[in-house]
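Page 47, continued from p. 46.
Same chain as before, 354 aa.
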Amino acid sequence: MSLPVTVLPELTTPTFSVVLDSGVLLKLSKHTSEAFPATVCGLLLGLDADSVLQVTHAFPFPSSESSSSSSDDAAAAPRSKSNLRYQADMIRSLKEVNIETNPVGYYVSSYMGGFFNQSLVDNLLAYQNANPNSIVLVHDVTRSSQGSVSLKAYRLSAEFLATNKASNGKFNSESVVKNNLTYLDILQELPISIKNSHLATVLLQQLDSPTFAKKGDPSSIVPSSTLSPNFDSLELSIDPYLEKNVELLLESVDEYYAEQGTFNYFQRQLAREQAKIQQWIQKTRSENALREKSKLPLVSEDDWQKHYKLPTEPSRLDNLLISAQIDQYASQLEEYGSVTSSKLFAIQNGLSSN
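Result:
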């Protein structure tokens, strides 16, 4: 289903970075956090100029009230009929108050970094067909709860788009090899910078400045500052996060082997059918030799297509997506495992010194 957005002319200067308004960050963080663990999404509005994509506004798509809706259904929400109508109504209302209404992508929440799926690829294809500079912002609520905002911007890479065009969306082995597409080339990550208004910057500076009970007395600091130093970074209760990462990694590995088994079955079926075709061609050649001596019409060797049908090759996209998801889980384990190991070694050295 195509998105009801204005198709832009071909862009000669693609964007290489994203500037996100702080208000947009607060809106999507609030939306995804309140809906957690459900998968939710929303539309991003802004403009692209001077190789920079500026995201100035965002609004959430309404969540499905059906209790049977799955995470895959929620991830595909930007292309649903109801949300397309809701998007058109919202854009019409925003135009009345002079707010930027150019769609530049969408945002989606993720659980433990699990966002490599067919729905995300289909949504990005639809948005990038309308605007080649469109992106998706992925907000990982679980990683953000560990102390830092986990927000990344992605778009489909040029290699992926070339493979999709060459294979007509089928992603067979020939097109994947020809375009040198690997699981690392599915998405292109763009750097994100947060832009605050002048009033927000003044507020942050005020919150960061110390408060004194007595004016001019440095010893009378009131430890009520919102951004005061604390010992949260020394908290060791992140083992459940690592444990869940390992579980999801093992599940992805099982999915990978299942997908690989499907492709191996296709190769065995293809080999059997090709062997039958070769036998039929050899038999036809022998018959043609006898027919030629008898001056009878020859049988075309291409007639094997009337008797045999080669199996259809499964799409290699699922294999690439699962591989990319395994790489994502492994990267998270490496990142948080190194931090945890440092803390544990520090505690061990402290206990041994005592």
